[in-house]
Amino acid sequence: MKFYADVHRTKKNDEGYRITYTTDGTTFKHVDSFSEIPARPGDKLFMDTIPPQHTDGAIELLRRGVEVYYLRRLTLIEKVHREHKLPKSARGDIKALMSIEERWFRRVTEDFLVMRRMILAQRILSKTHQQLLNKYRVLSEAEREVLKPAISSIEKQLGEMARMITWEVVRRYPAYNVLVEALGVSDPSALEALAEVLLPE
User: Which of 42, 74, 108 marks a domain boundary?
Assistant: First the structure.
């Protein structure tokens, strides 16, 4: 059986996500987690996107034997909306998904979802680190002293996250370990960058 789902933000303070799904395009139901979708082994779930907050729910479906797919290009939904004059709503988005050929969806694995979430955390830390450095450069010496501990703390977290990503990639992608040894890569930041390159799109 094929399930189609749309993941959208809740109206309450624009926080969190709500999932609407259907199997026939006529009857729609709502859940708060992918794990609540009654899909069984061999079923397929197609969706527009998989927010990092819903990684665990998607992994639970995979472990249940469900094939999980997400849309490669979200612009396709807009295109189908225009062509079929569908309403701008969760149900309209789902009907658009149902009109898109399967070749435009990418099947995900647990390894991909776990690594994607970890790399996202690394990117957030890196962005915060860069923002603090930019502010640090324009401050007075006294103000810089106040900011130094925060910068040092984030740098430590970046190093720890890089090691975590490296360990996970080595464990989940055996070929990665061979490549690391062949290239002689040992720097944590370089290892994290290499891990990201090895991940599927």
Answer: 108
In one letter, which amino acid is 49?
T
**Which has the minimum average pLDDT: 76-80, 115-119, 122-126, 194-198?**
194-198
> Are residues 97 and 115 both part of a single domain?
no
Q: CB–CB of 82/12 below 8 Å?
A: no
> pLDDT category, 43, cuts 50, 70, 90?
very high
- Residue by residue, DSSP assigns 31-67 as ESSGGGS---TT-EEEES---GGGHHHHHHHHHTT-E
Residue 128: count of CB within 10 angstroms of its CB: 15
Listed residues 61, 89, 108: the one ending a domain: 108
Q: Are 118 and 164 in contact (CB under 8 A)?
A: yes
What is the extent of the structural domain holding 165? 111-198
Residues 41 and 79 in one domain: yes
